[in-house]
Amino acid sequence: MKPAPRKTTTEEAASVKQNAPPRAKSVESLAARVRDELDEAWLPRLYRERILTLRTRSHQVPVPKPREQIEIQHTLLGVELKVGRRRTMCPDLATARYLAVFARVGVAAVAVPYDITKISHLADELESSWQRALLLLEHHAKNRSRQFRSRARSFVIGEMQRETELAGAGTAIPQFNQNTKQRRPRI
To answer: What is the pLDDT, as a whole number, of residue 19?
Structure first.
């Protein structure tokens, strides 16, 4: 059997271009594409639809300055969320993970579910959404300049921050059912 003739470099480039996804023209179009692909896993949408529908309490999150690291530290006193030089005590690891996602987004106040059994699962979903957004951003901007990728990342994070802040942080103290009497009313 005779081997197939080798394609020339221009033919190879043309076939690669045909198989490649369409290139985003601007930062805004790239951000819209990432948001559309994430759909229900878009971080602000998860926040609005899955978290704010629960009974929550408001919590302040330290906002990182540019180039500050966000870490979760285990100390003798418990778990801390460290943003730059500021430390915030957290009741458990799940809450620290949950708050770390919002610290990366740059949101100053966020709603935390009052039911602690739900925080771990929500933290998993939020972390997954954050990582998927960054991976999709890198995938769609892989052949672009470093400056374009940096602008696109900043724009996407800014959109996440704006939409999350627009949704609000809820009340400082959760609403409780004040009706505790279990007797039947007298007739």
So the answer is: 52
Considering just the CA atoms, what is the radius of gyration of the chain in Å? 23
- d(C-alpha 56, C-alpha 121), whole Å: 15
Q: pLDDT value at position 29?
A: 92
Residue 177 pLDDT exceeds 70: no
CA distance 125 to 123: 5
Torsion of CA 179, 181, 182, 184, to 10 degrees: -100
| Residues of the domain holding 134 | 25-167
Helices (H), 20-105: 27-38, 43-46, 93-105
**64: how many CB neighbours lie within 10 A of its CB?**
16
The span from the CA of 178 to the CA of 7, in Å, is 77
Q: How far apart are the first and last CA of the chain?
A: 99
In a domain, 20, yes or no: no
With bands split at pLDDT 50, 70 and 90, how would you rate the model's confidence at 25?
A: confident
d(CA 34, CA 139): 10
Query: Does pTM surpass 0.85?
Result: no
Total domains in the chain come to 1
Q: What is the pLDDT of residue 16?
A: 45
Q: Domain for residue 181, yes or no? A: no
- Selection from 117, 127, 107, 124 nearest residue 169 by Cα: 107
